[in-house]
Amino acid sequence: MRIIGETNIPFLSYRKIALSLSALAIVGGLAYQFLGPGLNLGIDFVGGSQVTLKFRDQPDLGTLRESISDLTVGTPLIQRFDEVEKNEILIRVENPEGAEGDFTRPILELLHQNFNSDLGNRFDLNTQGSLALLGRLVSADPDGMGGDAEARESYYGPMADAVLEYRKTNGIFGSLDELSNVEALSESARTYLENNTAVGAFSLLGAESVGPAVGADLQKKAMLAIGFSLVGMLVYIWIRFKLPYAVGAVAALFHDVLITLTAIAVTHREINLPTVAALLTLVGYSVNDTVVVFDRVRENLRLRRGEELESVMDLSINQTLSRTFITSGTTLVVVLSLYIFGGDVINTFAFVLLIGILVGTYSSIFVASPVALAMNRVLVSRRERRRLRGRR
Predict the structure, then answer these.
(1) What is the pLDDT of residues 101-159, one digit of tens each?
(2) Do 139 and 279 sit in the same domain of this protein?
(3) Which range marks the domain in which residue 63 is found?
(4) pTM over 0.85
(5) Which of 259, 316, 342, 357 satisfies CB 3.0 to 4.6 Å to 296 for a cystine?
(6) Does the residue 364 lie in any domain?
(7) Could you tell me if 176 and 199 are in contact, meaning their C-beta atoms sit under 8 angstroms apart?
(8) pLDDT at 276
(9) Rounded CA gap, 8 and 16, in Å?
(10) Nearest alpha-carbon partner for 90 in 128, 126, 64
(11) Beta strand 88-94 pairing with 77-81
(12) Residue 151 and residue 283: Cα distance in Å, rounded?
């Protein structure tokens, strides 16, 4: 299948312009990253805590940010999670420098002060766990079971679990009236909870924490993962083709990663483990496109012996141009859909792939091939000098 007819575009004649633009973009990006605001590393790499909350009503993000601003060294990251109407919020705070530990509880305490101040000392069904609820029921013994504590725990345990399972299924208790939907509750236990508990403005859906030491280790391993992937590509293409092609392919991969990191930095997106996964996916996608071009170059060199490598490369790029547009275009449509409709959770992942596909397609044509051509000429020139020295 071809969507582009026979073309004869002299791509390599524009290599100086293309490489100059790429070098300018890379230098500008590195300057922005090291001399400007730099990369926005997530809690996976710097340490911190993350909580996911569901609110009864749509919360004001500014109020949320003010509520926990004193807890973290930087501005807390607060963003909507899933659809807006679900009122789900993701909060990330960076640990104070050198501080270890889980900051989930301090976050919840600050939010309680600002959003649940009207609850007083009443038990909050939206944030307390099943053990705390079981303790309340065992102590109050609304069904008058009597006996020892162990017997009462055995009796009220399924009730407490059922209440928490209902909250887990629905995300939050909107009102105490919803207790009537929990079939495992006895009438007396339901009445007790309706009179002695409350439902706060938010519920805790999930929490995770990463210490600074673990974050630094993850940061080191992420860099090693990208570095080893590039070295692996270099060795594979060197064996599969020749050294000039390996150098050209890896140069294109470095180009793609650095340009994509610049785009992430400029848009102030967070770099976390999913972002690293997207960068590794980008490396694999980009080298695949480059290998297709180089494979056609190798084939044409056998068929057109004696022709200049530059003209063979131009011919090969033109011959694979239709395939490049079909592959990149169809992938781009999928990634663009993820970027627009995928929600906040995978938005950065889709953004990295979106930029990577565009930059990777460009680099396969205007970076990998020109670098391979230049490297080949350097090696040929070196062999020629050695040959001449041998004659003398």
Answers:
(1) 567 777 888 888 878 877 777 888 888 888 899 998 999 899 988 878 888 899 999 99
(2) no
(3) 48-116+201-209
(4) no
(5) 316
(6) yes
(7) yes
(8) 84
(9) 19
(10) 64
(11) antiparallel
(12) 60
